[in-house]
Recover the amino acids of this structure.
């Protein structure tokens, strides 16, 4: 294949290492061994090498992301697994999401090493490891978020019928990884799609740039099953939750108005509903973060397969890669903010974190005792 690239010459010339080194402005992949060049989409090899400072900045940013995510998600996995009060069927899905986020950041040493060595330093082997882990954790996180939305929908809208069991939760997790496996195997064996470097050649993902029908079909399929389907489920279930909560609240207010009382709920019922709604809010927040972080990646892959590829500069494609990692850092802190039992267990096991969380049970007991004392005093 031969075509001119901004006066540099044809692609066959650009791909020769001696020509790339001789250029006034070195091109991406100048330091890649000739036998490794075939693994890199030609689209990236036509761009100038980025300044070293940008690679160092990204490498440093990923070090920060990695430390934050491993600590945060590690605490979620440890506390939710070790605390008996948190080992509920619903929380098995929470643990799986934390595992996906944790493993997603376990592959970042490959990115960091490549960044500090200016490109495709770990070669195709590092790229395959990066792609495999990224696919399992990315698809796993999207499917887990969808099942969390389904579970919250059942708990809030059908509390008596839709109870989650340990068996059902484990079956969901097995399904999630079986769901991701065909895409991973297809790319790794290159029977349909492949894992290739992208952007500054420091990260890897599935190929969305090769100009043929198979690639376009693969991109459309993986976009539909790993992004569109989970996102549609998330939007449907949470819209149903919001609708149910609003209609339930309206019905209670109307009934209270008819009975000339302020509220139909007891203190116990109020606290119970508050806990459920807070958990639902946490799940909605995490799913929103998932949507915000993965949408740029989905759009980028569609542009690469079906749109104007000149929009996909190396620098632009590193932004979606960063947003995907950033959400893995934020998720565990959403749980820490919104889950009272998690904060209680964290306070008990890690007192050095200086978390101040009151025990809900003791608070309700104290409140009940105070009410009884007031009633006795009034009677006297």
């Amino acid at each position: 294949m031969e075509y001119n690239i901004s006066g540099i010459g044809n692609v066959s010339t650009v791909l020769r290492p001696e020509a790339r080194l001789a250029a006034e402005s070195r091109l991406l992949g100048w330091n890649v061994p000739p036998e490794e060049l075939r693994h890199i989409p030609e689209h990236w090899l036509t761009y100038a090498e980025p300044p070293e400072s940008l690679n160092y900045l990204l490498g440093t940013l990923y070090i920060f992301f990695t430390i934050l995510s491993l600590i945060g998600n590690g605490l979620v996995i440890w506390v939710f697994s070790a605390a008996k009060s948190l080992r509920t069927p619903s929380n098995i899905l929470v643990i799986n999401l934390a595992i996906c986020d944790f493993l997603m950041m376990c592959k970042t040493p490959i990115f960091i090493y490549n960044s500090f060595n200016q490109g495709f330093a770990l070669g195709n082997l590092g790229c395959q490891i990066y792609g495999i882990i990224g696919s399992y954790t990315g698809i796993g996180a999207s499917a887990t978020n969808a099942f969390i939305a389904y579970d919250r929908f059942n708990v809030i809208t059908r509390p008596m019928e839709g109870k989650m069991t340990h068996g059902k939760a484990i079956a969901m997790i097995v399904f999630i990884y079986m769901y991701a496996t065909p895409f991973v195997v297809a790319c790794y064996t290159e029977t349909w799609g492949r894992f290739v470097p992208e952007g500054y050649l420091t990260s890897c993902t599935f190929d969305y740039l090769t100009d043929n029908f198979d690639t376009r079909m693969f991109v459309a399929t993986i976009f539909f099953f790993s992004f569109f389907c989970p996102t549609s489920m998330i939007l449907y279930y949470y819209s149903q939750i919001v609708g149910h909560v609003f209609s339930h609240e309206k019905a209670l207010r109307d009934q209270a108005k008819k009975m000339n009382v302020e509220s139909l709920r007891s203190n116990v019922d109020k606290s119970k509903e508050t806990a459920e709604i807070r958990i639902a809010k946490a799940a909605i927040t995490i799913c929103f973060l998932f949507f915000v972080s993965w949408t740029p990646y989905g759009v980028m892959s569609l542009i690469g397969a079906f749109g104007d590829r000149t929009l996909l500069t190396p620098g632009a494609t590193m932004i979606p890669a960063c947003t995907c990692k950033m959400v893995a850092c934020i998720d565990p802190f959403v749980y820490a903010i919104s889950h009272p039992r998690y904060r209680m267990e964290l306070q008990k096991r890690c007192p050095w974190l200086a978390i101040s969380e009151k025990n809900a049970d003791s608070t309700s007991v104290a409140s009940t005792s105070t009410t009884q004392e007031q009633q006795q005093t009034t009677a006297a």
Notes: The first strand starts at residue 195 and ends at 198. Residues 50-355 form a domain with the Rhopdopsin 7-helix transmembrane proteins fold (CATH 1.20.1070.10).
